[in-house]
Design brief:
This protein has 158 residues and is mainly alpha-helical. It has four helices and two strands. Helix 1 runs antiparallel to helix 2 and helix 1 runs antiparallel to helix 3. The two termini are 54 Å apart. It has a two-stranded antiparallel sheet with strand order 1-2. The chain is rod-shaped.
Length: 158
């Protein structure tokens, strides 16, 4: 539970950080696009290409920054699933390839929903088992206490 609260707080902080980074990147993109727009016609191909490549790199940087919350959420949920022994669906509809990496996969919204439901169900089942065992234990203790009380009361009367 505390890990979930800590993760929730971390996700909020990450969202703020991502928003600030995206704002900075957007300003850089606007500057680069302004430079492209203001370039004279006689500028060399290499210089124009360099500026366009810088703009494309900024768009990629922005896409990677926007995926940071999904990266964090995927890591958190996969760790929880592994600890609980929950199998993770490998269907392509639940996964997407991360920007800037051919090997990193992130959970889609549908994948996050399915995995969260599975984790909640498993945790609920484990809690139910503990609650039923505790009910048996405390019921037995109550019954034993009642029997002892009855025996003491009967012995006191005789």
């Amino acid at each position: 539970m505390f890990r979930d609260l800590r993760h929730s707080r971390d996700m909020k902080m990450l969202a703020i950080d991502v928003a600030n980074r995206v704002d900075q990147i957007d300003k850089k993109i606007a500057d680069v696009q302004q430079r492209l727009h203001e370039l004279p016609e006689d500028v060399g191909f290499a210089e124009r290409l360099g500026i366009e490549m810088r703009r494309d790199a900024l768009f990629t940087e922005k896409a990677i920054a926007l995926q940071e919350p999904a990266r964090s959420q995927t890591k958190f949920l996969l760790t929880q699933a592994a600890e609980l022994g929950i199998p993770v669906a490998e269907d392509e509809q639940f996964w997407e390839v991360a920007h800037g990496s051919l090997h990193e996969r992130l959970l889609t919204t549908a994948g996050i929903d399915i995995l969260r439901k599975s984790i909640r169900r498993e945790v609920r089942e484990r809690i139910d088992v503990v609650q039923s065992r505790l009910a048996i234990i405390f019921g037995t203790i109550g019954a034993i206490t009642g029997i002892i009380s009855l025996i003491l009361t009967l012995n006191k009367d005789t």
